[in-house]
Amino acid sequence: MKKPIDPNLDNFDNEELPIDIAAPEAENANPLKDGNTESPAESSKPAGSSSPITADDFKMREKQYYHSSSHRHRSSGSHSHSHHSHHSHHSLHSSHSGKKKKKNKKSLPVAAKIAIAFLAIILILIIAVVGTVLFLQNQGKNNLTNVTTQTDYEEKISYNGHEYVYNDDIVAIAFIGVDKRNIDDEGSTSGTAGQADANIVAAVDTSTGEVTAIAVPRDTMVEVDLYSENDIFLRNETMQLCLSYAYGNGTDTSATNVTTSLSRILYDVPISKYFALDLNGIDPINDAVGGVVVESLFDFDEFGIKKGDKIHIGEDIPAENYVRTRDMDTINASLNRTARQVQYIKAFAAQLAPAVMNDFSIVSQLYNTASEYSTTNISLSDATYLAALLVSKNTLDFETITIEGEMKPSTNTQYADVVYAEFYPDEDMLMQTVLDTFYTQID
Question: Is the pTM of this model over 0.85?
Answer without folding.
Answer: no
